[in-house]
Amino acid sequence: MTIVKAALAAILATIGVAAPLDGPPARQPGDHMAFLERLTGEWSVVAEATLGPGQAPVRTEAREVARLLGGKWLVAESTGTAPNGQAVTSIRTLGYAPAEKRFVGTWISSMQSHLWWHTGTLDDSGAVLTLETDGPIMGDPTNEARYREVIEIESDDLHVVRSLILGPDGEWFEFARAEYRRE
Fold first, then answer.
1. pTM for this structure?
2. Which domains are assigned to the chain?
3. Which residues pair with 41 in a beta bridge?
4. 92-147, pLDDT tens digit by residue?
5. Are 177 and 162 in contact (CB under 8 A)?
6. Cα angle: 142, vertex 144, 145; to 5 degrees
7. Do the beta carbons of residue 85 and residue 63 sit within 8 Å?
8. DSSP states along 95-115
9. Computed from CA positions of residues 123, 65, 161, 103, in that sequence, does the dihedral angle turn out positive or negative?
């Protein structure tokens, strides 16, 4: 049987297909993939965002379905409604790049034309991932700012995503917070 598995692996590699023959590798507690696995599932999302100085926070609701692609990439699709009533879909990809020793990912939304590229690190607890990116300033797409997304797993059934922007004073300002509750 081992010879058959080795031959099959060689054939798959020759035609450009990589497939584990014995299933996915065992995960160790606290590793990077364990963090991504905890984000998989179906989630109800409630978010509040401040859209500008002096404005009251806006509340939105969405639903997210997240899965692992090939055991390596989180693919999460959210659907909901914007404050103006417009339907919104967003897709997040997130994985760990061992050579770079950091997480990498993207985020797109049906309401924007910008592709957000994120990089970041997991804290020592294994429960808080901090991602950073540059992108257009909301309301002023001709200028860019530094952004931070902090994903914190509070339990198997709840994680929180906080969105921050780096202000001209060098301080981070939290402009959005979303709670993801497992359905």
1. 0.81
2. 27-182 (2.40.128.20)
3. 66
4. 999 999 999 999 999 999 999 999 999 999 999 999 999 999 999 877 888 999 99
5. yes
6. 150
7. no
8. EEETTTTEEEEEEEETT--PP
9. positive
